[in-house]
Amino acid sequence: MREDIIRYLIDRDLLPRERVSNIMSTPVATIDAEEPVARARITMIRNGISKLSVMKGERPYGIIGMRDLTEKIYYAYFQIGTRRIGFYKIEEKILAVPVKEIVSPPAVSVETDDLVKK
Known about the structure:
alpha+beta, CBS-domain, 3 strands, 45% helix, 14% strand, globular
């Protein structure tokens, strides 16, 4: 997984000595914590990204990623089994809940002039 590769690079001091600003996407894509999960999914697909910063008002609240959505829907599928109609209803419920229900808090941030390793 992505995190395993990053951990491998960090442990071996193989990350480029670059500033965050040189590799980050701008502007930062965000979503409000009260928005539905469906909007988060659409935003990620439209922007070609896999994670969104979740905001509660003006403050960072956490991160939601495509993997979070996939895990929730995948888990629901195996809870329901072959009863497809039940699965679609659960998928619709997942997509309707506020992002804050499945976000991965807390939000951790760095400054744009920090090194990537930080």
